[in-house]
Amino acid sequence: AQSVTQLDSQVPVFEEAPVELRCNYSSSVSVYLFWYVQYPNQGLQLLLKYLSGSTLVKGINGFEAEFNKSQTSFHLRKPSVHISDTAEYFCAVSDGVLTGGGNKLTFGTGTQLKVEL
Amino acid sequence: NAGVMQNPRHLVRRRGQEARLRCSPMKGHSHVYWYRQLPEEGLKFMVYLQKENIIDESGMPKERFSAEFPKEGPSILRIQQVVRGDSAAYFCASSPEQAAEAFFGQGTRLTVV
Questions:
Q1: CB B108: neighbour CB atoms within 10 A?
Q2: pLDDT in tens, A20-62
């Protein structure tokens, strides 16, 4: 069984400041890791993903995340946020492809990023 | 290449009625997943289907909920005799075989009154 913990339910930050959204996971097998963004009343958009290889993953809109296997973390970062980054961010894991269960995702409860002027 | 299409976007049902949610996967995708997002919560897996087969329904409530993905046409999530607690956003995602990325639709927001 897998689980994902997003420790911060809300993160307020001023525009142009850096931000880190935390994500920890637990799994008994190797996993794929994802960050999704959800704007109000919209679906989920993939920001970035870690499948294998380099532990530093770069995504869209200037976001990046680092996979840390020893700490079972996959924190999301952006060096300078914009008002338009205000949204809900979800961390997710999948091991389904490895175990024959397809791309079934286990999500965290989300972090609401609020960027203020 | 159109994305994952869900309809309707918004659905209002009275208690006791049936709700039918439709999902057309991306072209070439044969795997479909349904998730439910309750207010103030993350997405919870419900069911995973391939064409004409239910692969994993471990997240489906035992009663009133069913899903199908026929050979032709969209995937359908059906909720019979809806109750207020069924009010949520229901998201569909699709993926091609052997890929590790699922693409999401914009969801159907069900309100039970």
A1: 22
A2: 999 999 987 778 899 999 998 788 999 999 988 889 999 999 9
